[in-house]
Amino acid sequence: MAPTTRSWKGYLKLSLVTCAVAMAPAQTDRDKTRFHTLNKETGNRLRMQWIDAETGDVVENEDRARGYEYAKGEHIIVEEEDFEAIALESRTTIDVDQFVPKDEVDWLWTGDHHYLVPDDEVAVEAFSVIRDAMAATKTNGIARVTINKRERWVLVAPRDRGILITTLRYPYEVRSEAAGFERISGVKPDEKDVETMRQVIRTMMGKWDASKFEDRYETAVKKMLSDKQKGHVLKPAPAAPDAPQKHEKVVSMFDALRRSIEAEEKKRPKAESKKRGAAKAPVKKSA
Predict the structure, then answer these.
(1) CA distance 199 to 207
(2) No. of helices (H) and no. of strands (E), the chain
(3) What phi, psi does 220 have (nearest 5°)?
(4) Mean pLDDT within 89-106
(5) CATH number 2.40.290.10 given to 8-27+86-173
(6) Whole-angstrom distance, CA of residue 140 vs CA of residue 98
(7) What's the CA gap between 131 and 3, in Å, rounded?
(8) Residue 54, Cβ neighbours under 10 Å: how many?
(9) CA 142/CA 171 separation, integer angstroms
(10) Where do the domains of the chain lie?
(11) Which is nearest to 155 in space by CA: 78, 97, 228, 77?
(12) Is this model's pTM higher than 0.85 or not?
């Protein structure tokens, strides 16, 4: 039952309940267009080589090693077996440490996603009990697992028939909001402008549909490659007609918002626009 592209195999442990599981990345960039680095004159592929910074000699793969610089110019060479000596239980076990409400963890702290499934038929029952119990209590587990030789805290969440593992960042990996937003002034916007912007948002509301998210850049790259292969001469793309000019005269926020509403309404079918207008028409107060 393990996924064909599994990247980790071990056990999921919750208190005294344990089951064999396998994990695989939930996201992939396999279908993106990739390029090789070539010699422009010959068209041959280039090969990367490692050069000794002092002698200038080429260093073959078998002679390379990782090193930690503990003082200027002084390194400790670290071999693969040195990492193997770090015997963390999380190398083979996802041990759930605690549970939190399912919406408690801020997106800012999340990283990569992985699918977790039972690794054999025997594990299905225990796996299903853990998954359904989390779904029923609307909670996610917090655990640790070693991925690519590094231990990460992870979020363990029920998802459909399986479990989604999401890596969490350590505090030193997350910048504070104060540092991130320090250039934003504390000026309060005009309430009239905020209300009009809310109307713009309501006009643009829709349902999430991942199938609509076309990778326009990938599509354009494929067309460009096809055109070049056919010998077509490519011309620079014209500037976007609606691109804001650097020195364009600034209109009032209220006027810009009103224009936004009008523009969004024009994009929608007439029947839908009328329906929205009737539903959101302001009620006039009697004198």
Answers:
(1) 17
(2) 7, 11
(3) -65, -40
(4) 93
(5) yes
(6) 9
(7) 18
(8) 6
(9) 15
(10) 8-27+86-173, 189-205+251-280
(11) 97
(12) no
Q: Which residues of 27-39 are buried (b: 16+ CB within 10 A; e: fewer)?
A: eeeeeeeeeeeee
- What is the distance between the alpha carbons of residues 112 and 26, in angstroms, rounded to a whole number? 8
φ, ψ for residue 180 (rounded to 5)?
Answer: -70, -35
Helices (H), the chain: 80-84, 124-137, 177-180, 191-203, 216-229, 253-267, 270-280
CA 265, 266, 269, 270: dihedral to nearest 10 degrees? 80
What DSSP element (H or E) covers 17? strand 17-25
CA angle, residues 197, 201, 203, in degrees to nearest 5 = 115
Q: How far apart are CA 76 and CA 82, in angstroms?
A: 11
User: How large is the C-alpha radius of gyration of the chain?
Assistant: 28
Q: What's the pLDDT tens digit per position in 106-151?
A: 999 999 999 999 999 999 999 999 999 999 999 999 999 998 888 9
**In 10 A of CB 166, how many CB atoms?**
20
> CB neighbours (10 Å) of residue 127?
23
Crossing angle of helices 270-280/191-203, nearest 10°? 140
